[in-house]
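Input (DUF6350 family protein):
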Amino acid sequence: MPALAASFVRGATAAGLGLGVLALVVMGLWISSPYPDSGPGGALRLVAGLWLLAHGTELVRAGTLSGAPAPVGVAPLLFGALPAWLVYRAARDALELGEGRLRPSARGALWAVTGGYLLVGIAATVYTAGGPLAADPRSAALHLPLVTALAAAVGVWTASGRPHGPLPAWVPGRVRGALARTRVAVALRSAAAGALALLGGGALLVAVSLVWHSDATQDSFQHLADAWSGRIAVLLLGFALVPNAAVWGAAYGLGPGFALGTGATATPLALAGAPALPHFPLLAAVPAQGRGTPLHWAAVAVPVLAGVMIAWFTVRAAAPRHGSRETAWGVRETALTALLGAVGCAVLTALMAAAAGGPMGTGRLAAFGPVWWLTGAAALVWTTAVGVPGALGVRAWRVRVPGRWWRRGAAEPGQASETAVPVPAVPAPAGQPEPEPGAEPGPDEGASEPDKGAPEPVDGASGPVDGASDAYDFLPSGSWAEREGGREETAALKEASEGSAAKLQPVPVPVPVPTPEPEGESESEPPDSAPPEAPAANEPPGEGESPPPPGEPSGRATP
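Output:
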């Protein structure tokens, strides 16, 4: 209970802060105004009425010239940003843990924050009765709880870690299965990107038109108020209505346009009818009556840009890498995701169109702004027609195989084929110098006898097909038979060198055998005479002598 009570107080505090900011601005303008219409009570009731108008509540203006009450339903969208942010912060802070503080459940925090905020809202609705802008009770009962609950739910979801849990059980099974198979997160991002592109394009159209009609805009601003306090109030109101003008510009670019009363509609084709335009600077940007010009038709670039954004955000996830078919989505899944993004963009555009328009009075002023269902339908058509084919086209471009349709795997001249396996170079046979890099062979080089085992050219062809030699210029020249012959010659030289090394072993010299000498010769010889020397083994024989037969000694033995 203490945690829920604290959450309830947080909701009431958020509502009080919103009222306090508006009260500060309005009371400052009231004090500085030289001719205030009412006292401080009337100014405070105006503050409460503007705070309820920021939530989408329709106000009723009693002081009209005709005496009949007139509704005021065009709510400045920028006013609604502050209350929504305050409720979001209150719900998110209620679930944050702190020292000595209990944390409530997510559902309890949601209802407690919403209850505290609505309690202040009910008091503000009652307080506006009798003021210059009283709140319509039925409109307050519809818009105030809806805006508060949505902002608080987003805050609770953020505080819980942004879970992506299963869909509720009341969703049909087929719908849950289809959403599970598609990329819902990608579709939501692309839808948000498309809606932001529409808003940005609409704001650009409004800015260009204001510059184009700068004289009328200045005159309207000066005629609304003479005092500087009144001009500041007009400037602040125009600034708060800039998001509304951006939505109107987006509807103009989509084609349906926007209503300027019950009998006038502004579209790129023409401004038909008699518009009921009050004096206001932003309304000075409305095109002149008559048919549209090519400058007005150029506004269709806004929905085209939205479709391109949807296609781009879809294909970023469908084909994140160029040429990667394994990780790319299928065609059906890509198209379905882009279609879901277009549907989401159309829903967001319809909601913005509904919030940006409304009545400004009775009679001809009962309808102002774009028609929400026409604007949403036009956004769906444009984004689907541009986004789905664009996503499929970019996906096909990213997963393509470069050159597959014309090259068929052939290499460019001067380049090696991607599928070719390089063959290591074979050294030249022994005795032949290796050619220098880049040197062209001579007329006699590279010529060899025809290989008996090589196949002959077919149909009288004398060589390789023209252009094929460039693709194989990294292979060694010569036939396989020549390279095999070189290897055999190298092996033969190696064997011969081994044999010559074996033959160079030292050969023993035969020792001469002594022979007996005759007795007469030994006695007649002097005792001191030495026997003649035997000729050397490598000395040639003298004249008249013949070499000794093999196996006999070549000289005499020494005694």
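The chain is about 50% helix and 5% strand.
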